[in-house]
Amino acid sequence: MSRRRLRLMAASALCTGIAGFAAVAAAPGPLGAAPRATAIPKTKVFGWGFDSPAAISSDGTHVWVANVEGDSVTELKASTGSLVKTISGSSYHFDAPNGVSSDGTHVWVANEDGNSVTELDASTGAKVQVISGSSYGFDDPEAISSDGTHVWVANGGTDCDETVVCGSVTELDGSTGAKVQVISGSPYGFDDPVAVSSDGTHVWVANEDGNSVTELDASTGAKVKVISGSSYHFDAPNGVSSDGTHVWVTNYSGNSVTELDASTGAKVQVLSGSSYGFDGPYRISSDGTHVWVTNVTGNTVTELDASTGALVQVISGSAYGFDGASAVDSDGTHVWVTNEDSVTELNASTGAKVKVNSGSPYHFDDPDAISSDGTDVWVANRFTNSVTELSASTGAKVKVISGSSYGFDDPIAVSSDGTHVWVVNYYGDSVTELDASTGALVQVISGSAYDFDDPDAVSSDGTHVWVTNGDSVTELKASTGGLVQVLSGSYGFNCPCGISSDGTHVWVANEDGNSVTELKASTGGLVNFISVSSFNYPYAVSSDGTHVWVANWNGDSVTELKASTGGLVRVISGSAYGFGEPDAISSDGTNVWVTNEDGNSVTELDASTGALVQVLSGSPYHFDDPDAISSDGTNVWVANAEGQSVTGFPSTQ
Q1: What are phi and psi of 259, to 5 degrees?
Q2: d(CA 117, CA 367)
């Protein structure tokens, strides 16, 4: 159940019932129709950010970030660092993705908890396959490396501890993902292998508990040697990177880096001392010219000269955004560092900061309301007291509007009429008016005369603005925001939580009253009070001028009324419709779109007949607590409150 529903249901206990109004007779049930099976194309999901990014890989064109907590992979454009997409959904089988490696053609993601590897197409990010099964020997796969010919997966082992030595490496064919072999056994010296790097000739595996590095032949997977001993100073080695000439190993507990000769595995030197700034050195990446070391406890990055191992610089400071700096990868032009919830981009030639990519550029945070006027899409973010403006034609971010002057205080509803944008502030007992063409603040409307009392819904028809309160409706003049009147008393309002004006009539859904109040838009006068047996917590309402559609949250149904008379047309329900706590509805005159909070889906109905068109769910829609919906006749926009995202797709095929 959404946070909004929980709050409103708690508040509904304060509402009082109103009786004495005539009920409308029930009409026949829903019309049956075969659903349309084809999926709407060109779906886009906007707003996902980093969620505990644990691994990163750049192929020079794309940057791939594995989000271990988010069960997702974020793709960035390597040339700009801009967000391309975040990939998630059950079909990808991401399950604590803890390792990622791209060879430019394929992207390989190791799912630690899922004991699987997901392969993506590097050019598109599309899923190629999910590789799993006991024959692959995946056991807590913690790291992965592809050299273009082979893919090497380091399996840490779920049952390893200080007394049990275990671990293995799975080799896959780099072109097909087919299993080549599973390498294990005491001769290999695997002991909690946590990092792996292949340079195409040798494969280097860092064994954290074994304080050793295992070298394999990349062409056969045969053991070359196990490197250990006090002279190497391996101490909880957590990262390894080979550039073909040198092999660099981070020693997390030893605050040092060990350099090996890639052709022989012989020790070259051990780098340590305060000047290097090593402080929990965790991961490492060499591009052949520079070596980059993340210091996870020091929140710094140490840069070394790859030819000599000499210190170049220690990079630190708040501007870099290092926060639990963990994974690092360099493509020779850019250096990418993952933090707790961000990625820092550095210039590989100088180490200078390029940018810090933090969270979602859209700043969605519990997006609970959405409205599209065909030019812009306006999203109310309740937890950050902000409004995000998107382009309706592309979905691209226009701006994020925030600041104390806007008076946003739990913005819970938004309506745009193309000229003005009206934002309802639930806790602020106010309405913020924005200029729809610029997003600039026009005014914040508040005061006792307006009777705003936990205002919860808003609808503007371009002439009038209608705001629901606990037991009243406030009417504003759209051209000025001035008060017209406050409607209460005999209108039958009983916790009104949904409102829709089609310019002729205003329809108010009374959640606790199981009723709909119809008003005359020109005067606000009462036209009708509609109560039918099918209303069951009517939570949202939408009128397209011909039909009125009411979403019954507790009834898993939709009631259709005739806009000209308020008469009942039909009640739409049944498992085929996929209704599950429907809590938002929008009609564009051709289609009716219903969000199902419980089912993480959207049901599409034919507006002329009420027949089922299709139920949309799963990939590529990624609905996650869809709490609001708006169709402008061209596109449909869905705000996902829990997913911190907005899904947009065409309204026609």
Answers
A1: -105, 130
A2: 33
Q: How far apart are CA 630 and CA 646, in angstroms?
A: 11
Is the peptide bond between 620 and the residue preceding it cis, with omega within 30 degrees of 0?
yes
Residues with Cβ within 8 Å of residue 565, at least 6 apart in sequence: none
Decide if 334 contacts 350 (C-beta within 8 A): no
Task: In whole angstroms, give the CA distance from residue 459 to residue 632.
Answer: 14
Strand order in the sheet with 411-416: 411-416, 420-425, 430-435, 441-445
The DSSP H or E segment spanning 549 is strand 547-552
φ, ψ dihedrals at 437, nearest 5°: -80, -25
Rounded-to-integer distance, Cα 346 and Cα 352, Å: 5
Dihedral angle at the C-alpha atoms of 330, 334, 339, 342, nearest 10 degrees? -140
Question: H or E stretch including 3?
Answer: helix 3-11
Say how many CA atoms lie within 13 Å of 472 toward its Cβ.
13
Cβ-proximal residues to 13 (8 Å cutoff; 6+ apart), any chain: none
Which residue, 564, 597, 563, is CA-closest to 582? 597
Residue type, 457: A
- Amino acid letter, 198: S
- Distance (Å, whole) CA 429 – CA 407: 10
Distance CA 185, CA 193 (A): 13
Structure tokens at 323: 């926060």
Rounded Cα distance between 423 and 433, Å, is: 6
Check pLDDT > 60 for residue 638. Answer: yes
In single-letter form, the type of residue at position 42 comes to K
The type of residue at 418 is: G
SS (H, E, C) 85-153: EEECCHHHCCCCEEEEEECCCEEEEEECCCCEEEEEECCCCCEEEEEECHHHCCCCEEEEEECCCEEEE
Cα 36 to chain centroid distance, Å, stands at 27
Cβ within 8 Å of residue 185, ≥6 positions away: none
Contact (Cβ atoms closer than 8 angstroms) between residue 293 and residue 278: yes
Find tokens 């005999």 and name the residue. Answer: 490
Distances (CA, A) of 120 to 65, 74, 125, 196, 494: 13, 12, 5, 20, 52
Q: Is the pTM of this model over 0.85?
A: no
Read off the pLDDT of residues 17-65 as tens digits, 9 standing for 90 and up.
333 323 333 333 333 333 333 333 467 777 657 888 999 999 999 999 9
Task: List pLDDT tens digits, range 213-231.
Answer: 999 999 999 999 999 999 9
Contact 395, 46 (CB under 8 A): yes
Contact 234, 211 (CB under 8 A): yes
